[in-house]
Amino acid sequence: EIAQEAEHKGWHLYIVGGAVRDLLLTQNNEKVLLQDIDLVVDGFHRSADVGAGVELASSIQKKYSNCRLSVHGEFQTAALLWHKDPEFGSLWLDIATSRTEFYPYPAANPEVEASSIRQDLYRRDFTINALAVRLTPPREGELLDFFGGILDLKAKEVRVLHANSFIEDPTRIYRAVRFAVRLNFEIEPQTEAYIRYAIESGIYEKLRLKNHVAPALTTRLKAELKYILEANYWKPALQLLSDLDALKCLHYQVTLDEEIWWQIRCASRWLKYLDPDNNIGHWLIRLEILISQINFKERKQLALNLQLPKESIERIKIVNILHSELQKNLINCQKVSEKYKQLYRHKLPDLILVAVNSSKKIRRIIWQYLTQWSKVETPLNGNDLKRMGYKPGPKYKVVLDKLLSLTLDGEIQSKEEAEMIVE
Ligand code: CTP
């Protein structure tokens, strides 16, 4: 229907990018569920204020009331979001405009058309993402492959389109790694050389500098990092980023030495067990450990530049203090109840960050707290005390806390024993 609408207006419409790549990679009978589709429309428009993509998207939205329209990127790109369908999830449709000139051209002129979509595809990152399928006549369904994308799909190679690509957009280094690991492709040798060259040339400084210098860049870098660190292939991806020296893009002090690797893996195991529904955002904790190598001031600045969530920035601020406080205090605690008192006020992610960076002894205490002691309940509650004839008041808390301590220390085991002690 979108193609018909475009055709009706005398425009050309293409499906481009990841959707084409993923469709071509699927085996014969395999079903693919596309949730993020990029379209490019090539057509002139009377007004220079709105691109053809925006106009096309608006017409579609008028037909389908169940989708939401948003416009971004200086009026050139429109996105349509279809709400969550219980069976298929949600669908994002991005419609970009390939033509930047706003004067008419003969719609039937194939040369003008070819050069416009070719230019659009040439601006993209990798050959495997620079494929398009024409959706409007003539020759609808035709696959456009100007840069050898099909050959690279067959050879399983991630190949960049031009030498300056990584200098212009360092987030593409992370994208190269993401596609290589996710699709089980190799980064083509020349492309790898361009990546290494970009990193050696200090491109990461551009990312590290204050937010006002490159806000869009850091936002995109965060998006790529999140993508990588929350994917099920995060381990090989992180390893490849490290092999390429690309973690430097975050900060020149970030490396993946044995210690940091161990900490990230240990935290991930703990998180999997303690937060199986991933409410905390495991990717964030991995990132926080990764950047924990940077000195405090610069780490905080980086977290702000990357616009990490508030709770993450808070954690970065307090974790060092919490670490030294717990090291000092836990060592002197004998009883379980004393250890409990040191730990119960702190949040799970804070404790995990401290644990992975602590001695085995401290780590064990924190693990016991998280898996056992934090689940212990007081044998009596306020209602029990009331039933026993005690008047409600601040004393309740004192009594209940004492009962919890005695339970934790194994000195009372049943409700009856607790009642006897209260009496
Ligand atoms: N793109 C690019 N450079 C970037 C980001 C995106 O050239 N830094 C281009 C690529 O051609 C990509 C398209 O924009 O195919 C859409 O980007 P995105 O949706 O992020 O990537 P997909 O290829 O669709 O990948 P995924 O399947 O992971 O969403």
UniProtKB/TrEMBL annotation:
It comes from the Bacteria. Belongs to the tRNA nucleotidyltransferase/poly(A) polymerase family. This is PolyA polymerase. It comes from Crocosphaera chwakensis CCY0110. The chain holds residues 476 to 898 of 905 of the full protein.
